[in-house]
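A.,

Following up on our hallway conversation. Structure tokens first:
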């Protein structure tokens, strides 16, 4: 699997590809990196229930995938360490 990130101001889109160089088969738009009490996590799109005030997420992922998305997103962030080249993950991520 190949993961790419494209930033739009303070949010980004995460795309999944079968391998590098092929069209994505899934894109999640409007993601953020959030600092939580246990460290950073990917804030996927969510909807707030106006009655209860509770947030309902639209996407879930495991910790390994979240760590990979955060790594790729940080490297791809405008002005980040690798801002001049496209960022992607290794094709052999075991998740």
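Then the amino acids I'd put at each of the 95 positions:
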């Amino acid at each position: 699997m190949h993961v790419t990130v494209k930033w739009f101001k303070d949010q980004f889109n995460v795309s999944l590809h079968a391998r590098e160089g092929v069209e994505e088969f899934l894109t999640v738009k409007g993601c953020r990196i959030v600092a939580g009490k246990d460290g950073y996590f990917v804030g996927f799109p969510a909807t707030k229930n106006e009655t209860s005030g509770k947030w309902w997420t639209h996407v879930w992922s495991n910790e390994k995938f979240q760590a990979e998305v955060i790594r790729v997103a940080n490297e791809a962030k405008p002005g980040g360490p690798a801002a001049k080249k496209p960022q992607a993950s290794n094709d052999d991520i075991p998740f």
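The helical segments are 63-76. Curious whether your intuition agrees with the design.

B.
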